[in-house]
Design goal:
It is a single chain. The protein has 396 residues and is an alpha+beta fold. Among the domains are: 111 residues, conserved putative lor/sdh protein from methanococcus maripaludis s2 fold, CATH 2.40.420; 72 residues, Orthogonal Bundle (Helix Hairpins), CATH 1.10.287; 77 residues, Beta Barrel (Elongation Factor Tu (Ef-tu), domain 3), CATH 2.40.30. It contains 5 helices and 23 strands. The strands form 5 sheets. It has a 6-stranded antiparallel β-sheet, with no helix packed on it. Strand 20 and strand 21 form a beta hairpin. Helix 2 runs antiparallel to helix 3. The protein is rod-shaped and about 165 Å long.
Amino acid sequence: MKPMKLHARGVLLGATIAAAALLVACSKPPVSEEPIRAVKVMTVGITGAQAKLEYAAEVRPRVESRLGFRVGGKLMARSVDLGQRVKVGQLLAQLDPQDLKLATDAARAQVAAAQTNRDLAAADFKRFQSLKDQNFISGAELERRESTLKSAQAQLESAQAQFAAQGNQSAYANLVSDVSGVVTAVLAERGQVVAAGAAVVQVAQDGARDVVFAVPEDKLATLALGSDAQVKVWASNTVLTGKVREIAASADPATRTFTVKVALAAKDDLALGSTVSVLPAALQHTGVPVIKLPTSALRQQGQNSAVWVLDTASMTVKSQIVQIATADGNEVVVVGGLAPGVQVVTAGVHVLSPGQKVVLYQEKSASTLTSKAQTATVHVATDAARASSGSAAVAQ
């Protein structure tokens, strides 16, 4: 009888355990509470803007001329190179003068022929005038001789003018500089056939310099002709003062920006092509009262920027859309959505959800960290001593 009773008890116990397991499996799992996260916050306030709008610029000449020959021909010599300084009247290049000399000789021969015809017409007129005085010829005949003389005189004057013009053409075979400055470009080489008026060299005239930079369209309306601008020289850290001299009327087709020229004083003789930076006074807003937030406080909510605002009464966070104007160093300028006195989460914004409970993050003091480090050192030393004693005992 005893074995049967034991078997019945085992069956009953197994059924009880199976039923309990089935009940546990069918019961709902416990709901895990959302963790309370520690966050860093800051109180929104009004501060002064510190960022400055600074543009990269280049020093260029106020006047830059592209010089070329007034006549066409083959370039025989070029006596200047890129970067060379030139003076007024200095020879820059020469054309082959042979054809021009032949044209001058032809013009001189035409003058000689016209002068001979004029002299012959003058002698005829003089002789016919003597005959008229003796009534050997009519007055009409004398008038014809006078007309012939006048025509010959006009032809002589025309030939003389052509000869003078051809003489100038021969002189145009020499290209001379009409300004003092620096050669900034060489546009033709020896042996090349150039047309009349084609540029051969480019000369930057000595004198005042311009600082040239580009601004986007949204800043153009703020700039004004004559406004001040600071110019910082990259090589020497020198700060100069200039004035906006010219603003482009249309945008550059490639960059869609507008070119602005700042005029420097004549005494500020900077090297052409120098790299400088420009701070237009009209575009600076230093000290303007604004609301600023660190970039770590921002997150993307759809197409808008948003921040987490802390409700101190319930210690929960809610999302708030804000409008950003511009950057100010490592911070952003907020122009809408926040008011002074509001507390905004500045760290851990991407792990929060609306209505989530939070606690304020408390930074550990240096004394606490030191004590923990000392305690850890004592524990390590104790463990090492125990290990040493155990090793000694085993050796004995």
